[in-house]
Amino acid sequence: MSVRKTKFDKRLEAIEKRRGDWDFNDENFPRCDWYAEVGNNDTQLGYFDWVIHKYEAADESGIKL
Questions:
Q1: pTM of the complete model beyond 0.85
Q2: Which of 1, 38, 47, 51 is deepest in the core (most CB within 10 A)?
Q3: Nearest C-alpha neighbor of 29 from the set 10, 12, 5
Q4: CA dihedral 33, 29, 58, 21 (to 10 degrees)
Q5: Is residue 37 in a domain?
Q6: CA distance linking residue 50 with residue 42, whole number of Å
Q7: What single-letter DSSP state applies at residue 63?
Q8: How far, CA to CA in Å, does 17 sit from each of 14, 25, 36, 42?
C-alpha cells in the first residue's frame, strides 16, 4: 500500500533537495527573516533546518502556506 504524499511532504522534499544551495531563498521564510532571528539569538539553526522547522510549526498549528 502506498502512502499519498501531502503538499507539505512534497514541499519539505523540495527543500531537502536544495539543501546547501546558496541561491535558495524560500518564498514563505526568506533568508532575511532567518538572519534577523540569528542576529537576535532566537535560533541557532542553519537556514535549511530553520525553514523546515518553520514549515513543521506552521503545519502543526494548522497554518496554510
A1: no
A2: 51
A3: 12
A4: -120
A5: yes
A6: 11
A7: -
A8: 5, 13, 25, 26
What is the biggest distance separating any 2 CA atoms in the chain, rounded to whole angstroms?
46
Residue entry with cell 539543501: 19
pLDDT, one tens digit per residue, over 23-33 is: 999 999 999 99
Residue numbers of the domain that contains 60: 25-65
State the amino acid at position 38 in one-letter form: V
Contacts of 65 (CB under 8 A, 6+ apart): 11, 28, 55, 58
Cell representation of residue 37: 532571528
Report how far residue 37's alpha carbon sits from residue 33's, in angstroms, rounded to the nearest whole number.
Answer: 6
The C-alpha cell at 2 is 502506498
Whether residue 63 is contained in a domain is answered as yes
Residue 52 lies in a domain: yes
